[in-house]
Specification:
1 helix; five-stranded antiparallel sheet; alpha+beta
Length: 99
Amino acid sequence: MGRRLRTTVPALPTLLDPVLPDYNVLEAKEREKRANDAEIYNKRHGARNLKPLVPGEDVWITDARVQGTVLAAHNTPRSYIVQGTQGTLRRNRHHLVPL
């Protein structure tokens, strides 16, 4: 360990050897904590999944403030290819409001 202990209580030398944690157990605990934190956050903030859009559906593109039409779903999660007045755009479902 890096520093000298200041106690006068005798201890066995084997107790002073550093012990590394079991990384599999540590990783499982952290994964469980992250999942629990996400569940609590989603419950508190009313997070929910938006309904998927179908190709040909008219949508309002909030960040561009124009109307567009969904061409197809993109291969990334929750993203869509949208035809608008500015051309073909890729937008997340968050930015698309069905009309």
